[in-house]
Amino acid sequence: MVTIAVAIAVVVTARSSLADHYFVPSGSMLPTVEPDDHVLVDKLAYGLRVPLRDDYALHFSPPARGDVVVLLSPDDGRVLLKRVVGVPGDRVTVTGGTLVIDGLSVPVVDRGGASIEELGAINHAISLAAGGGPDFGPVRIPAGRYLVLGDNRGDSRDGRYFGLVTHDAILGRAQGIILRHGSPTWVGLGRGTNP
Questions:
Q1: Of residues 16 and 130, which shows the higher confidence score?
Q2: Known catalytic residue: 28?
Q3: Do the domain assignments include residue 193?
């Protein structure tokens, strides 16, 4: 009986503090992540979380602009998958689904029919097929807060609706897609992964 309790404790600790997977229920991150994808999440990316709690015991590097993250929605506590587009100190505006950071428009270029947003070191596809969604800002992001958006800008309930999120609300960084259409795969989502 003690062995089973220890095994359960190890699994719970690992899932809350080290790594986990996330099932994607919606198309808010299209075209990057599809509905029903399973995503591997690095829960040590930003710090060591206290098991079974919603805060960090130790902080490592903060979330960076362009990271795909798993977070708790400030609205209802649901787990969401979004992209960090604004970090502390940024002055951010979103108009028609496109970003302006510190007065500079974030480039969106056409590559083979795909709209690629060049968000610093991270180049990633976005969709404006359903429009750009609501406008946001301008807002200067304070310390410890982040603006997150879905890549499917016209069909994403994100920071434009629920506001800025705290560092503690971010559960980890999505490393890659591990299951798509029921088949094992690997599509990297981490830093340095560009289309």
A1: 130
A2: yes
A3: no
